[in-house]
Amino acid sequence: MSSRTIALSAACFAGVLALAGCGSGGGSASQGDSGKIDVVASTNVWGSVAKAVGGDKVSVSSLIDSPEKDPHDYESSAADTAKIAKAKLTVRNGGGYDDFFGKAVKASGEQKEDVDAFALSGKHGDDVNEHVFYDLPTVKKVADEIARKLSSIDGSAKETFTKNAKEFDGKIDGLIAKARGIGQGKQLSALATESVADYLLEAAGVREATPAGYAEAVEKDQDIPAAAIAETNQLITGHKVSMLVDNTQTQTDTANQLRDNAKRAGLPVVAVTETFPKGTDDYLAWMGAEIEQLAKAGA
């Protein structure tokens, strides 16, 4: 948990009568001016999970709060660092996905209660997919850890945080059940413009069929070999895959070409994103809509 020793000491020293209040402990000493616990998340996806667990006991802000901001190349600002300095809890994706956030936390100069989704996922390896917000069991772990961390900050609200996390987890279980039903009894496969939703595809029983040469070049942000592009397009035009899973936040000539070819071929296109699209601010609604798309594509 972060320390507000300097701020608290100044407040106590300024008025002797406030000494009892400053030393009294309890939840209020750990909360912001609004009476709510300040939480800062790296992206609005994780910010939404924190809000679902914290409810009206928390004030949540996210550094990546619009689809125009890319977590991979975002650079935090002084305003971001100021937000984090005020926060009592930070929530990040981890796994190299949002390194800007770790730098901003370090720049704030204070140690925080922190939730790292990738660390909670238990996934390992140099080539492991860092997009764990598409791994629904991991999202449940994050919600539970947020509840635990918030309870350590404000023990008087522990019952609320635990109840909210349990309700959230139950809804995630519902999404998992829907996803698992998509590929049952079918031989579904998908191409992906980017390996964002691979964990969801796996849960849905949809085989990821993107050629290795294409996927590796995209992951490493390298030029895609012409042979890999040709192989990928042949899978579309030959109807050798069930669908194209398209990260609509990726705008490249090659990705656009795959989208156009899929539409011309009549291949279902499932639109996915890394952060909330415009008009969406709720994790469950966002993921539910993408699972519905996936189900229609696999029908």
List the helices and strands and how they pair.
Elements: H1 5-14, H2 19-22, E1 37-43, H3 44-54, E2 58-64, H4 78-86, E3 89-92, H5 99-108, E4 113-116, H6 117-121, H7 136-153, H8 158-182, E5 188-192, H9 198-203, E6 206-208, H10 212-219, H11 226-237, E7 243-247, H12 253-265, E8 269-272, H13 283-297
Parallel strand pairs: 1-2, 1-3, 3-4, 5-6, 5-7, 7-8
Describe what you observe in this structure:
With 299 residues, this protein is of the alpha/beta class. The protein has 2 domains: 27-178, 3-Layer(aba) Sandwich (Rossmann fold), CATH 3.40.50; 183-297, Nitrogenase molybdenum iron protein domain (Rossmann fold, 3-Layer(aba) Sandwich), CATH 3.40.50.1980. 49% of the residues lie in helices and 13% in strands. It contains 13 helices and 8 strands. The strands form 2 sheets. It has a 4-stranded parallel beta sheet, sandwiched between helices. A 4-stranded parallel beta sheet has the order 6-5-7-8. α4 (78-86) packs across α5, α7 runs antiparallel to α8 (158-182) and α11 (226-237) runs parallel beside α12. The longest helix is centred in the middle third of the chain and has 25 residues, at 158-182. It is globular.
